[in-house]
Amino acid sequence: MQNIQTYSLGPKGDVSIEALYQFCVKQNKPLAFTGLFDALPELTQWSSAKLRQLLGNRQVMVNVSESGLFNRSQMQAMPFQEYVDYLELPPEQKKDIRYMQQQSISGALANGCFPELSALVAIDRYFPTHAIWEQNLWFGPAGCMTGLHFDIPKNFFMQIQGRKKFFIVPSNSRNNLYAHPAMSPRPNFSRVDLTSDFESEFPLAAQTERYEITLEPGTMLYLPECWWHQVLSLDNALSVNIWSNTRWVGLLQEQIASLPIMGRGVIGTIVNLFSPKPAPAKPTHQSNKTK
């Protein structure tokens, strides 16, 4: 198991917030940073109470899973206030696990679900112009887990509340990770669960270089494009990440395998642009229910 090098942020730290982006891109390997709240005090505004104030009873899309694994879970719409009430329930009262996973704040390919949260991201003003692909909110309970996968862009992942554990494998590890076929719905996902005793079923995966790190509140993880990672929430956790534009020079195995996903995404975007927009739904009365 390999360690991830950790640096401190801030005027008296190892890396200034102004130099962070270029420092990460130049290193081109996973890096961890402490002192995030000192470097960006605005991030301390993120809280359940602040989100309740800003989002109120807006309908949000929540992934639902009985097991806590969120690879291909079902989506459910619910008022944001009701979702926060769910998060605050004791674990034994949660019949299933619900996760506001990868909710767009703003991005190049979409207007974003929650543009009113964009000002709270704070770190984006230190990124080069046009470097940001997407900003996302991740807000869920302890026990939710995303399976081993890769993302095409660079990932700047900021942990705001609670803890998350990352299991990380280098890019170009596809041949050892029993990935789903390139033309499948999930070519960027592996069949390997790094939190289990996987060695006997997936012996090649046991030969890969692996990293583990637990992100505490106020820390950030940088992952270069196409690094494989599996994420487990150890507590009720709130996180914000920025996906930054990738380099397509050299075309890693993972990028080549992800071309069908990119193609489907481009087609879907074009269809949405030219499809007639549905009329807004009329408000309906909802009775109050005792929690």
Question: Largest beta sheet: what is the strand line-up?
Answer: 1-2-11-8-13-6-5-3-4
The counted number of beta strands is 13
User: So how many helices?
Assistant: 6
Question: What do we call the CATH topology?
Answer: Jelly Rolls
What is the radius of gyration computed over CA atoms, rounded to a whole number of angstroms? 19 Å
The CATH class is: Mainly Beta
Which word captures the global form? Answer: globular
The domain tally reads 1
Overall helicity: 10-25%
Structural class by helix and strand composition: alpha+beta
Strand-residue fraction? Answer: 25-35%
Runs in which pLDDT lies below 50 for 5 or more consecutive residues are 264-273, 277-291
- Mean pLDDT, to the nearest integer, reads 85
Distance between the termini: 45 Å
CATH superfamily: Cupin
- Main sheet: strands, sense, barrel: 9 strands, mixed
CATH 2nd-level architecture: Sandwich
Order of helices and strands: EHEHHEEHEEEEEEEEEHH
Would you write up a description of this structure?
This protein is an alpha+beta fold and 291 residues long. It contains six helices and 13 strands. It has helices spanning 20-27, 36-39, 48-55, 80-87, 253-257, 259-274; strands spanning 6-8, 31-34, 59-65, 74-79, 97-107, 132-140, 145-149, 154-161, 164-169, 211-215, 219-223, 228-233, 237-244. Mean pLDDT is 85; it is low at 264-273 and 277-291.
